[in-house]
């Protein structure tokens, strides 16, 4: 997990954390004291992390004072006091989350480097979705139309069933915005049900480049409660409001590589690292896999405590997802190709 890397953290980032956490405000030149390693917080990745932290603090304060206003309207002094105490507690917890997010984002800067995240991609670098076959598809994520994976996992609310289907639909996405560059993406549907009740219905947009990397260009995520659509939280689209595509699964994964899987600051910041390749096996209801299994660690600075291992089998795709803290597993139970 991100926290487990603390002992290896770059001392420049440690110093930056100390300043941000102890200063009442960040003023021009504050981070300039950190020497020449990253050209200080002017480095885009670091500056972005600090800006997101300040935004988080403003949001916490806004929500706190709105809560205080509601508490002040209570005529019962005891109820008002309890309300204010709860508001202060929530503010403290929220501020801690802001700090943890900052720390996680700074760790990402240490892993990827201090520069901007601006992958240079053009449509000519990518395969025509209709030309992707089992022979040229990324072996760990074959975007072959008609492929369907079914996963199951136990949750506190019951059996979770996830059905992922590579459709024959194509989504055209202009990236960067107003650039005239249009990427043809494969539409993949991801449906989540718990005890037969629809929880989420997502359409993801992927494209595979000539090197075999599967890029993630966005998603429209519909979230449900009691059978009714409640929001589309988590949705994003490359080229819109600063969203940038990332690599979902590399074509030739190398151990120790870190990469962004998606990027929209504050909304979509999934990261991954290649932990091993060909060193571990995975046994799930669909089968046991021992050859060239890819293991990744996936996380997001938005939820610093969330971390999971994913196992991919060549020619099959993802076969297992494990939460290392709880031991919870999501296992492949079925794979078909129409």
Structure description:
The chain has 338 residues and is an alpha+beta fold. The longest helix has 36 residues, at 77-112. It has 3 helices and 17 strands. The chain is globular. α2 (44-72) packs antiparallel against α3. The chain folds into 2 domains: 2-112, no CATH class; 123-337, YmcC-like fold (Beta Barrel), CATH 2.40.360. Residues 1-7 and 22-39 have low confidence and may be disordered. The chain has a 15-stranded antiparallel β-sheet that branches. Strands 12-13 form a two-stranded antiparallel ribbon. The two termini are 38 Å apart.
| Proportion of residues in helical segments | 10-25%
Instruction: Tell me the overall shape.
Output: globular
The CATH topology assignment of the largest domain is YmcC-like fold
Number of helices: 3
Distance between the termini: 38 Å
- What is the element string, with H for helices and E for strands? HHHEEEEEEEEEEEEEEEEE
- Provide the number of structural domains: 2
Number-wise, the strands total 17
The biggest beta sheet is recorded as:
15 strands, antiparallel
What is the C-level CATH assignment of the largest domain?
A: Mainly Beta
Proportion of strand residues = 35-45%
Structural class by helix and strand composition: alpha+beta
Which stretches are poorly predicted, pLDDT < 50 over at least 5 residues?
Answer: 1-7, 22-39
Mean pLDDT: 90
**C-alpha-based Rg, rounded:** 22 Å
Using the 3D structure, state the CATH architecture of the largest domain: Beta Barrel
